[in-house]
Amino acid sequence: VERKMASVETAAEHERILREIESTDTNCIGPTLRSVYDGQEHGLFMEKLDARIRNHDREIEKMCNHHFQGFVDSITELLKVRGEAQKLKSQVIDTNRRLQDDGKDLTSSMEELQQCRVQQRNIATTIDKLTHCLPVLEMYSRLQEQMRAKRYYPALRTLEQLEQTCLPRAGQYRFCSIMAENIPKLRIQIRDTAMTQLRDFLESIRKHSDKIGETAIKQAQLQRSLDSSVSTQPRVLMGRRGRKEAAAAMAAALGAGTDSGGQGGSPLSEQDSGILDVEDEEEDDDVRKLHPSIHPSIRFDLYFNYYRKQRRKQARLVLQPHSNMHETLEGYRRYFNQIVGFFVVEDHVLHTTQGLVNRAYVEELWELALSKIIAALRTHSSYCDNPDLVLDLKNLIVLFADTLQGYGFPVSQLFDMLLEMREQYGEILLKRWNITFRQVLDQDNYSPIPVSTEQEFKHYTSQFPLQDPELEKLPFPKKLPFSEFVPKVYCQLKEFIYACLKYSEDLHLSSTEVDDMIRKSTNLLLTRTLSHCLQYAIKKKNVGLAELVQVIINTTHLEQSCHFLEEFISNITNVPPDTANATKLYGTSTFKDARHAAEAEIYTSLNAKIDQFLQLADYDWMAAVQGGGTLDTSDYLIDLIAFLKSTFSVFTNLPGKVAQTACMSACKHISTSLMQLLLDPEVRQISMGALHQIHTDVKECESFARAGPVAGFQGDTLLLAFSDLRQVGLFQEVDPSLRWERLVLGSWEKRSRTSRRRDRTGRLRCVLLENTGCWAVCVCVCVCARAVFRLFFFLRKKRLAGKCVRA
Q1: Hey, which residues does 478 pair with through a beta bridge?
Q2: Are residues 48 and 148 in the same domain?
Q3: Last residue of a domain, one of 148, 172, 196
Q4: Beta-carbon-side half-sphere exposure of residue 695 (alpha carbons within 13 Å)
Q5: Residue 287 has pLDDT above 60, yes or no
C-alpha cells in the first residue's frame, strides 16, 4: 500500500512538473528541471515526458491534416500574385526615379531654408543674450558714474540690483566674472567711505542741533499761538505734517551750516539732505533711508552700535550745562535748543528708519536726559534772584516741554519741577516786594492826601477802593484820610497777584488750583513781608506820634479793603470767593496786628515823651511856704499839658478806644512819675512849700483830665489816675495837729474797699508825717493799722469776721 501511495505521489509530482514546463517561460525552466534530477525517479519522469511528447505530436499531426488543403490553396494564390507584384515593383521604381529627379530643386531649397532658420535662431539667441548683457553693462556704467559722483546710496542700490538680478540673468561671461570680482571691492570702498560720512553726519547734527532745536521751538511756539487763537482745546501731538516741518527745519539748519562752512565745512551733500526727507507712509521705510552706508550686505549692528554709542556721548555733552547758564536767559535758551535739536533728530530717525533706533532706546535716553535736565535746572535756578528772569525761564521751560511733548516725549516731570520752582519764585517775589514796601514806607510823608480836583479824586479812588459817601459829598479841596502809602500798597498787592498769576499760566492747572496758589502766596506776602515792613516802619527811631497815628489810619483802611482783594482774585481766577475749601486772605489779621503794634508804640512813645518833659522837673523839696497869693504851675507841666492837648487833637481820626487808652495811659504815667518823685529814696525831707507846689501841679493835671482831652470818658474816670496824688492835698489842708490822724485813719474806711490802696500810699503818708515831728508815732500807728486791717480782711474772707469783732 505504501509503495502504491508513493508511486501515486510521484506520478502526481511528475504531472505537475510537466504542466509547469508547458506553461513556464523557457528561461525559467532550469529550477524545474533541477527538481527532477534531484529526485530518484528521473527515469520514470523521462517516460512520462516521452509519452507527453508523443501525445502532442499526434495532436499536431491531426491539426496539420485538418488545415493542409487550405495551405495548398494559399500557396496557389501566392503564385498567381507574384507576377502582379513584379509589375508593381517596376512601376514604383520608375515613380521613385521621377520623384527623385523632381525633388532635387526642393531639397536645395529646403537646405537653404534650414540654413536661414539656423541663422535666425542664432540671431534671436544673440539678441536675447544682448538683452541680458546690455542692462548689466549699462548698470555697471551707471555704478561707475555714481561712484565718481560720490552718490553712494544710489550706487549701493545699483550694486545690489546688479549682483542679485542682472548678473545671474546675463550668464557666464568673462566681463560678468570681472564685474562679480569687483563688487566686493566696491562694497568695501563704499563701506569705508560711508563710515567716514556717518562720522561727518554725526558731527554735523551735533554742530547744528542748536539751530534745529531753535527752529523746532519756534514752530511749536507758532503752533501754540495758532491753537490759542483758533480754539481753546489742548493741542494734539504733531502728526506727519509736523514731522515733515521738523525735517524741513533740520534740512534748513544743516544746509545753512554747510553753506556757511564752504568747502572746508561739514560734508553735507545731497545724500545727507536726503536723510532728512520724510517719505509718505506707503513708501519704503527701509533703514537705508537714514544713511547711504546702511546696506543689506553690510553688517547693521556695526553701524547701529556706532551710531548709538556716539549719540550717547553727544547726549552727555548736550546735557552738560555751562557754569554761567543761570546768569542770562540766553544761556538757558541755548541749553534747551541743543536738547530739543538732539531729540528732534532722534525722533526723526525713529520714525523714518527701521532698526537704527527703537522706541525703547529713545525712551531710555529721554529718561536719562530728563533726570539730568531737572537736576541742572534745579541747581541753576536756585542761583537766580530776579523774578523776571525766573518767569522768563518758566515760560521757556513750558515752551521746551510743549515742543518735546509734540514729539511724543513725556514731560510731566518738567511741570512738576515748575510747581516746585513756584515756591522759589514766590520767595523771590517776596524779597522784591519787601524792598518795594520799604521804599513806599520810606517815601511816604504820613499825611492825609490833599485832593483839589475831581480828576485827582478819581485817580486815587481808582487805585484804592475808598467807600466813604460823606467824603464824596464834601466840596473840593478836601483830604483823603489815608496817606500815599495806602493806594501804593494796594496797587503793589495787585501787582503781586498779577505776578503770581503770570507764573501759573500754561502750567495745566485748574482754576481752583491757580486760585489757591495765588491766595497762599498773597497770604505769605501779607503775613510775612508786609507785616515785617509795617513793624519796621513802626519801630523806627525817628517815627513820631503823628506818623504812628497815620499808620493806624492807613492799616484800618487797608484792613477794610481786604474783601476787595478777595474779589479781585476771584475775578481773575474765575473762582467764586465762597467756594468750599477756598483759602481766605489773612490781611485782616495782618493789619490788625500792625495796628495794635502801632497803638502800643504810640503808648510807649507818648510815655517816653512825657518822661522827657518830667526830666525837666526841678522841685525844691525844702522850699519855704510863700505867704499870700497862689503858686504857679511848674513850667515843665505847662509844656507837657500843651503837648498832650496838641497830640490828643490829632487823635480825632483814631478809633475812640485807642485815643481813650492813650489818654488814660498818659495820665497814669504822669501820676506814677510824680509819685516816684515823691518816693525817691534820695528825698529825705519835704517841706510844706514843696508840698504846696506838688499840690498845685496835681490840681493842674486834674484840671486837664476834667477838661476831657479825649471824648468818650464817663464822669470823672480820667481823674482816678491822679487819686493817689490827692494825698498831698489832704495833707496840706488838714490842721497840723490832726494831720497824722487824718492821714492814717481819715479815709481808710472809705478807701479800704477799693484796690487802689498800695504800699506807696503808706510810704507817701510816712514821708509827709516826717515833717510834722510825729514820725515815730505815725510809724507805729501805720504798722498797727495795717496789721489790723489785714487780719480783718483775712477773717472776713473766711466768714469769721463777726466772731472776731465781738472777741
Answers
A1: 451
A2: no
A3: 172
A4: 19
A5: no
For residues 590 and 527, what is the distance between their CA atoms, to the nearest angstrom?
6
CA distance 725 to 708: 19
Domain-embedded: residue 23: yes
pLDDT mean over 303-331: 85
pLDDT (0 to 100) of residue 728: 61
Q: Are residues 453 and 528 in the same domain?
A: yes
d(CA 522, CA 514): 12
Residues 404 and 373: their CA atoms lie apart, in Å, by 13
Residue 399 lies in a domain: no
For residue 634 the three cell numbers come to 511848674
> Does some domain include residue 343?
no
- Looking at the fold, whether 570 and 467 belong to one and the same domain comes out as yes
Query: Does the pLDDT of residue 329 top 60, yes or no?
Result: yes
Question: What's the number of domains the chain is made of?
Answer: 3
pTM: 0.61
Residue 655: its pLDDT value, please? 66
How far apart, in Å, are the Cα atoms of 46 and each of 18, 43, 50, 210?
A: 10, 5, 6, 120
| 460 found inside a domain | yes
Three-state secondary-structure class, residue 166:
helix
Give the C-alpha separation, 369 to 518, whole Å.
32
445, 483 contact by CB (below 8 A) = yes
| Highest mean pLDDT: which range of 262-266, 364-368, 475-479, 736-740 | 364-368
Instruction: Please choose, from the candidates 357, 497, 340, the residue with its C-alpha nearest in 3D space to the C-alpha of residue 433.
Output: 497
Residues 14 and 142 both lie in one domain: no
- Claim to verify: residue 28 and residue 145 sit in the same structural domain: no
The last residue of a domain, from among 572, 603, 634: 603
pLDDT tens per residue across span 103-118 = 888 888 899 999 999 9
DSSP conformational letter for 281: T
Could you give the CA distance from residue 495 to residue 489 in angstroms, rounded to a whole number? Answer: 10
Helix residue ranges per DSSP H, 525-561: 531-539, 545-560
pLDDT per residue as tens digits for the range 349-402? 888 877 778 888 888 999 999 999 999 988 888 888 888 898 899 999 999 999
Domain interval for residue 132: 119-172
Considering only CA atoms, give the Rg of the chain: 65
Residues 124 and 51 occupy one common structural domain: no
> Rounded to an integer, what distance in angstroms lies between the CA atom of residue 505 and that of residue 498?
11
